[in-house]
Amino acid sequence: MFTGIVETTGIITGITTSGTNKSFWIQSSVSPELKIDQSISHDGVCLTVEALANDAHQVTAIAETIQKTNLGQWKTGDTVNLERCMIMNGRLDGHIVQGHVDTTATCVNKTDLNGSWEYTFEFPDQFAHLVIEKGSISLNGTSLTIFNVTRNRFTVAIIPYTYHHTSIRQVTAGSVVNIEFDMVGKYIYRMQQLKA
Which residue ranges contain the repeat Lumazine-binding (predicted)? Predict the structure, then answer.
């Protein structure tokens, strides 16, 4: 379980493929503190630490994860957002994030507002019921508030701290990002379906 408050970023230093799986080596400031079998969010995707070496950690994504996320597009040298799992005796600064990406969204516009940035994203229509004005969303593992919601688009505003301390600064028109919708909204929708 995560909060969507990015702890640090890491650099992809190596990628290997084995069958339908892809393994990634990520070098970061938190890698030396990790333990084997620990869960950590990588651009919003919960992955298990499998190996540690030289201030880096290794994780593997299976075919299901690669199909539903942007991990198949990752390249050596890319920057990814990292967050270790939440500590239950701390503050929940973002919102409840599972690290289970629902789908991807494509950036259709990035606007520099001379002190902040606005990004508009387009997502698959079938998820329209999970996106609400001023609701929470996890975008590449970052907890953000959405606005200007239409059927299949939403906008987020980025403050300077978030822009400079996460990988959002690398997102431009055409970039594909991982999104996880608010878990509470998903449960409410499921309950309504079962009552119908």
Answer: 1-95, 96-192
